[in-house]
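Journal club prep — side note

Before the paper discussion, L.F. wants everyone to see what a predicted structure for a comparable chain looks like in token form. Sequence:
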Amino acid sequence: MTMQFPGTPSDQVAEVVATGRGDITTAFVSMARRHPDGTDADYLRWHTLDHRPEQHRLSAVRASLRLVSTPECRAARAISGDRFGPVDHVMTYFFTDIGGLDGFNELSSALGDAGRKLTLLPHVERGVYGLQTKVAAPRVKVGADVLPWRPILGAYLLIEHGTAGPAELSAVDGVAGVWSFESLRVDERLAAAQPGQLLTYCFLDDDPVATAPRLRPVLERRWEGAGVKPLFAAPFHPVVPYEWHRYVP
């Protein structure tokens, strides 16, 4: 059971919210397959210790999150399908604005020219998304604005077409809060997520495989109406630094 901290949740205290709402507006999301040679742990080691830290020299990058699907995660998926079924790795960078992607690309080129890049994992889809909604479970106390900085034990990702709110998801035991994004039309050389695609992160403070069945009935109710079509619904583990083999596909 999650420890209950004292006091009133931040989102219910106007004076707390007035001090700042956070400046994340955009997410760049790269979804990839497992490593073709099975060296996922080596790739995660390089990305976590070399490539990912460099991105935070960019003032537009405010946070980042790397997720991995294990065989147990795969078995707990509610929706997989042909299009997103191969996804085993998800990397997200949270930006202050879409203009930050210019520096992101320049840095990628500079690191490549310096010989600092490994061959990338085979990508499934890359997308640029605009932040739509965010909500925190009152029990966690911290506000929805700061969820990307609160440590997690996992995440549950939804990809959908349509519109659906996050409130019911955030009420599920093990879900600390929810952020939802909608895909943006950008240069296809950068990303090619379909327009109108809804990407939702459930930030988890319980084991993702254990939380998945608790989410399923809520998701089934969410998908009963005509307003939303599920494309992908799956639990993931975060990378554990220096335990590179702990969670791999």
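L.F.'s comment for the group: The radius of gyration is 18 Å. Keep this in mind when we get to the figures.
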